[in-house]
Design goal:
mainly alpha; Arc Repressor Mutant, subunit A; 2 domains; two-stranded antiparallel sheet; 15 helices; 2 strands
């Protein structure tokens, strides 16, 4: 049957991607590689469960599945903000699933419902996180928007998984599971690959660094940007210091510039820098740094014959799509249009 081998194929692909990612990016993508390995193992277990009628697979599959949303949360909220180990509360759901899976013959606990609720809760949490204005201390500034989008996608994929479980339950109720294998196969062609890619996006955009896992702000997690809580004079002082340091050392040319690096160079806590920039410039520091990069690119477009690809790479941008988007946002035209108008 077509749906049987699909989980194994997806598992192999995820495993190969995990190994490739680890070899290419080493410690930078260690967490993402481990997550891919977990997804590969979970997918393979799904195939084993539906291929062989063994009780050990019936227990192992939901247990592995329960770790996916927790691991996704760790990959985004903790690994990319370098916050250390997960709090114990995140182990509650997998523990409940383990107990439920082991005691199914006697207690018949609502295992499917517990899994569905776990995926929904973590999915909503990731979507909410992506919509909040937070400071990604150890994520390169140019990648903030991409990481936030990846968080949102991961959240929706977890909710999608919960919907798949619901559809399968309904299929067993009304059709004796006639379509369950096809639902499962289709889901695994979408769910885990997309979720894995979202985690990889976040992982590879966290630069390798020997810096301490806690910055001068004393925080080891993502910092929420609260309403302004400093005087306007202090905010002006910090932004002036920031502007001078960025221009003097051309810090914006570093494509892996992070708020953590700025914190060390300025001697100002990350939270204060973020609040000051939001208070004075009415935008986050990621967009502010992109303004410096676009100004540098504009000068290069006028004064050099370099290609647009060379210019965006020399201006601190990591991708051409991000460069074009930010350039258009700030100038109202594409780099090519700007160069044509400038030479007339």
């Amino acid at each position: 049957m077509l749906s049987i081998p699909i989980p194994f194929v997806v598992s192999i692909l995820l495993g190969v991607l995990a190994i490739t990612l680890y070899v290419r990016f080493s410690n930078q993508a260690k967490v993402a590689s481990m997550f891919l390995g977990l997804c590969a193992s979970t997918t393979a277990m799904v195939g084993l469960r539906w291929t062989f009628e063994l009780s050990v697979f019936n227990i192992a599959q939901p247990v592995l599945a329960s770790t996916i949303p927790v691991a996704a949360w760790y990959a985004f909220v903790h690994a990319n903000r370098n916050a250390g180990l997960l709090p114990l509360k995140h182990f509650v759901a997998p523990l409940v699933v383990v107990i439920s899976a082991l005691t199914q013959p006697w207690l018949a606990l609502p295992l499917d419902e517990i899994l569905t609720l776990t995926y929904v809760c973590y999915g909503i949490a990731l979507i909410r996180l992506s919509s909040q204005e937070t400071v990604l201390i150890h994520v390169s500034l140019g990648s903030w928007e991409g990481v936030k989008k990846a968080e949102s996608i991961a959240g929706w994929m977890l909710i999608f998984s919960a919907l798949v479980d619901t559809f399968m339950s309904l299929d067993f109720v009304f059709n004796q599971g006639e379509w369950s294998l096809y639902i499962l196969a289709a889901a695994h062609l979408i769910l885990l690959p997309v979720l894995s890619i979202a985690v990889v996006v976040a992982g590879v955009n966290t630069p390798i660094s020997n810096e301490s896992k806690s910055d001068e702000s004393g925080s080891t997690s993502e910092i929420p940007v609260s309403p302004p809580s400093m005087t306007n004079e202090r905010a002006q002082e910090i932004t002036a210091l920031l502007d001078n340091k960025i221009r003097q050392d051309s810090l914006y040319l570093d494509p892996e510039l992070t708020l953590s690096k700025l914190t060390r160079k300025l001697g100002v806590p990350a939270k204060q820098i973020s609040i000051a920039v939001n208070q004075i410039h009415k935008q986050n520091i990621s967009k502010l740094v992109n303004e410096y990069r676009v100004e540098h690119a504009k000068q290069s477009l006028i004064s050099t014959q370099d290609t647009i690809t060379q210019i965006f790479m020399n201006s601190g941008f990591q991708t051409k799509s991000n460069f074009n988007r930010e350039f258009s946002r700030l100038t109202g035209m594409t780099p090519s249009e700007y160069r044509k108008r400038a030479v007339k």
